[in-house]
Amino acid sequence: MHIVIMGCGRVGSFLAVQLCKGGHSVAVVDKRKEAFDRLPPGFDARTVVGLGFDREVLEEAGIKEAGAFIAVSNGDNSNIVAARVAREHFHVDKVVARIYDPRRAEIYERLDIPTVSSVRWAATQIQLLLFHGRDELKASLAGGSLLHLERHVPAHLIGKPISSIEEAGTVEVIGVARGGVGFIPRPDSTFKGGDIAHFVVVRDALERLDMLLEPLAE
Predict the structure, then answer these.
(1) Among candidates 69, 103, 102, which has minimal Cα distance to 83?
(2) Where are the domains of the chain?
(3) In angstroms, how far is CA 206 from the centroid of its own chain?
């Protein structure tokens, strides 16, 4: 797949290298020529100096052949404009944008553009470590209102129905990893030792998840 990346900062340069290692064709766009100094010597990818929302610049980067466009510059406005140009003008199938201000996530959602917010991600991770230390955040969904969490199943739940720790509208088990193999639970599925549960939880229901996982009082 050919992938165009806008922004050659720490994230953009790292992504470019990793995607190239994965066998993809990559073009990196940045308005500053010196930004490409972040790329390793002999890096085999196209680099284009210019604004990532300029159509001629994007065409030089091969946007017409691109299967994906990633906007990770240091400006939210630039990222959203570039993402819209890639999606609406060049009809790129996969478009992802980074945002610094999580309040802008709603704008991207209305445009059907997936976003990554380092600020929101970090803030959520800190809260989980402080108050829900056993959880691992796998993804933040719907502008951060839903969280995909992973947790090792406690011993007292072994043999119990997986549905016993679900609550309609707030907590749902979307999958279980068992012995290196994942599966989607059925209504009659039960937990076994060593299981790792994957939850989708409403952000405001984290404490409710803790309660559902606690042993019942005798």
Answers:
(1) 69
(2) 2-117, 132-213
(3) 20
Contact of 92 with 68, CB cutoff 8 Å: yes
Tens digits of per-residue pLDDT, 51-80?
Answer: 999 999 999 999 999 999 999 998 888 998
Looking at the domain 2-117, which fold is it?
Answer: Rossmann fold (3.40.50)
CATH superfamily of 132-213: Regulator of K+ conductance, C-terminal domain (3.30.70.1450)
Return the SS3 of 126: helix
Indicate the pTM of the whole model: 0.62
Helix, strand or coil for residue 218?
coil
Provide Rg for the chain, Cα atoms.
21
Distance CA 28, CA 74 (A): 14
| Residue 46's pLDDT band (cuts 50, 70, 90) | very high
- Cα 30 to Cα 20: distance, rounded to the nearest angstrom: 18
- The sheet with strand 94-99 has its strands ordered as 46-49, 25-30, 2-6, 68-71, 94-99, 115-117
DSSP for 8-74 reads -SHHHHHHHHHHHHTT-EEEEEES-GGGGGGSPTT--SEEEES-TT-HHHHHHTTGGG-SEEEE--S
